[in-house]
Specification:
The structure is a single chain. The protein folds into 2 domains: 180 residues, FAD/NAD(P)-binding domain (3-Layer(bba) Sandwich), CATH 3.50.50; 151 residues, D-Amino Acid Oxidase, subunit A, domain 2 (D-Amino Acid Oxidase, Chain A, domain 2). The chain contains 10 helices and 20 strands. The strands form 4 sheets. An 8-stranded mixed beta sheet has the order 6-7-5-15-16-17-14-18, sandwiched between helices. A 6-stranded mixed beta sheet has the order 9-2-1-13-20-19. It has a 3-stranded antiparallel beta sheet with strand order 3-8-4. Helix 1 runs parallel beside helix 10. The two termini are 25 Å apart. The structure holds flavin-adenine dinucleotide.
């Protein structure tokens, strides 16, 4: 039983369907063991945090080293899935595919013009190069050639991370769900599928109760409920600490906005771009996603709508500086606050709970990057009963209630 059909639950269900053979999710080898799998979500699949994610596929700021390596494996899993899927996997008008897929390779550009932003970028590039990651300094004219839509200060130092990518959440989750269904997974979504109880007896999971009144028998329940995971795990008496998404001043909520350019607004943005004042990436239909780390500090889940709208306008203003032709012809749409599942030490929380046999949690920030890799490792662990060393640093019991 997988609770939550965001990117994490969907990736896991795709792996569990067909006994961990991947069910088309990544074509990786599995156990071949058949189990009956249910995937439940209180809303539409992928409509939670996943839908609003910047979905930059990277291992840029992941520390310590083991977490970096996990993220690099996640990046490789995305590239492999796109390769194995073929043209249908690729998003964006271009040479590779239909444009209606989810995967946007092409790397990421990040620059800074001085001050602490440049110091931080230098440190990041040095660390990543030492760890064997593709991180290089490129001249400003080369960056302009790669991304003609951008206005880059002549004095900026630009770093290029060529193996990084982005995914479009909606078609990506749709692909994972199709793979899960093809593997025999039963998918239930909507208000009636909201999990309101996890039944236990004799210290182990027996079933899951839904708001619609149905109880689905289960000997394993995997909590993939994103920022609501602590509440779902608590239904069985287990402890999962996340930075509380609902608390005033919480750092888990973030601000984002979309721009919808008019036709003829100059060259489109084609890859991830990160500057000290703005992060931007292309979305389907020529849209552009905007986020700024410093503005995230200004919002929580209680921020009034007019303040959110004003901050979204500030994102648009910053886009005028960075992407002048795109931003000046674009409408601002969808300024909103969205909550990240944020473990207190920033690393994933993955594994069984000693309190209740059969109860398991998978919750993480950077879930877009990690989804395919975690889905594969967790499915293997659940289907074989053997612990996966790669997951050892992420066990829930590292936190004490
Ligand atoms: C603004 C923003 C930018 C981000 N940028 C990046 C990035 O660039 N790269 C990256 O890798 N990651 C990024 N992330 C993080 C990433 O998006 C998340 O880690 C990921 O989407 C989490 O997926 P999830 O499946 O755990 O959660 P969700 O997508 O929230 O899915 C959880 C699901 O559980 C369901 N659920 C909850 N409670 C119940 C219940 N009781 N019963 C049934 N169903 C339930 C919900 O309806 C939901 O669909 C970003 C996040 C945000 C908010």
């Amino acid at each position: 039983m997988v609770i939550g059909a965001g990117v994490i639950g969907a990736a896991l269900a795709a792996q569990l369907g067909g006994g961990g053979r991947g069910g088309g999710a990544d074509g990786g080898g599995g156990t071949g063991r058949r189990v009956e799998v249910w995937l439940l979500d209180r809303g539409a699949p992928g409509a939670g945090t996943t839908a609003n994610s910047m979905a930059w596929i990277n291992a840029h700021s992941k520390t310590p080293r083991h977490y970096h390596e996990l993220a690099v494996s996640g990046m490789r899993a995305h590239a492999a899935l796109a390769r194995n899927t073929g043209p249908a996997a690729y998003a964006g008008a271009g040479v590779r595919g239909s444009g209606r897929g989810w995967y946007r390779p092409g790397g990421a550009l990040r620059w800074a013009s001085g001050g602490p932003g440049l110091d931080q970028l230098r440190q990041t590039v040095a660390r990543l190069r030492e760890w064997g990651y593709a991180a290089e300094w490129i001249p400003v004219p080369r960056a302009r050639e790669l991304e003609p839509a951008l206005r880059i200060d002549a004095g900026a130092r630009v770093a290029y991370f060529r193996d990084e990518a982005a995914v479009d959440p909606e078609p990506f989750v749709a692909h994972l769900l199709a793979a899960a269904r093809a593997g025999g997974v039963h998918v239930r979504t909507g208000a009636e599928a909201r999990v309101v109880g996890i039944d236990t007896a004799g210290g182990r999971v027996r079933g899951v109760r839904c708001a619609g009144g149905e109880t689905v028998p289960a000997d394993v329940a995997v909590c993939c409920a994103g920022w609501r995971t602590p509440a779902v795990a608590a239904l069985a008496g287990a402890y999962v600490p996340l930075v509380p998404g609902d608390a005033p001043g919480s750092e888990a909520p973030t601000l984002l906005a979309h721009l919808r350019p008019d036709a003829g607004g100059g060259p489109p943005l084609t890859r991830m771009v990160l500057t000290p004042r703005l992060h931007a990436r292309p979305l389907a239909g020529g849209r552009v996603y905007l986020e700024a780390l410093d503005l995230n500090d200004e919002v929580d889940r209680h921020t009034p709508a007019d303040r959110v709208a004003a901050l979204a306008r500030e994102l648009h203003a910053r886009a005028h500086d960075m992407l002048p032709a795109v931003a000046s012809s674009a409408q601002l749409v969808g300024g909103r606050v969205c909550t990240r599942p944020l473990p207190p030490d920033d690393n994933s929380i993955v594994g069984p709970h000693a309190e209740v046999e059969g109860l398991y949690t998978v919750v993480t920030h950077s879930g877009m990057t990690l989804s395919l890799r975690l889905g594969k490792l967790v499915a293997r662990e659940l289907l074989t009963g053997r612990e996966t060393p790669e997951l050892a640093p992420y066990r829930p019991d590292r936190f004490v209630r």
